[in-house]
Every structure is written in C-alpha cells, then in structure tokens.
Design a protein that fits this description.
The chain has one domain. About 85% of the residues lie in helices and about 0% in strands. It has three helices and no strands. The chain is mainly α and about 90 residues long. α1 crosses α2 and α2 packs antiparallel against α3.
Length: about 90
C-alpha cells in the first residue's frame, strides 16, 4: 500500500518538475499513473518472490485500467472532433 502511494506521489512530483523547470505541460493525467506503475515494477525487484508477483499483478491491472481509460478518452475526443467538424460543415 505504501509503495503505491509513494510511487504516485513521486510520479506527481516528477510531472510537476517537468512543468515548472522544463516548461513541458502534462498532456494527459493518466501518464502519471503509467509513470507510477513503471516505478512500482522497478521497485518490485526489492521484494521477496511472492510479494514481487503480487505487486507485478497489481501493477499490470493498474496499467490495463489506465490504458482502457486513455483509449476511451481518445475515442470520445475523436467523436467530439468529428461532431465539431460536422457542425462546421453545416454552416
């Protein structure tokens, strides 16, 4: 539990630093979850085999959810853009 919280906080902090110091805007908040998952997968090597497996399974589940949310957001964005294009063509 604490590992997940630490990973999310670290990913938020890194995103904040990229925005503040490099001027790079966060294009999608789901990227924070993906970064946190990468950190947790990396840190999983520090755990015993049973705990490592459990952690990796949890990370994989989080990644599946994040990618499905991202895909859904992209589909909705495409539909919204298509609707706006259709509205503009009618004028």
């Amino acid at each position: 539990m604490q590992l997940g919280i630490a990973a999310v906080c670290w990913a938020i902090w890194k995103a904040r630093n990229r925005t503040c110091f490099e001027g790079k805007l966060l294009s999608n908040p789901i990227s924070i979850i993906c970064h946190a998952c990468a950190l947790m997968k990396y840190w999983a090597g520090l755990f015993k085999e049973v705990d490592k497996e459990t952690l990796e399974n949890g990370v994989n589940t989080m990644l599946k959810i994040a990618t499905s949310l991202l895909a859904k957001r992209n589909r909705e964005g495409e539909l919204l853009m298509k609707d706006n294009d259709d509205d503009n063509q009618e004028e």
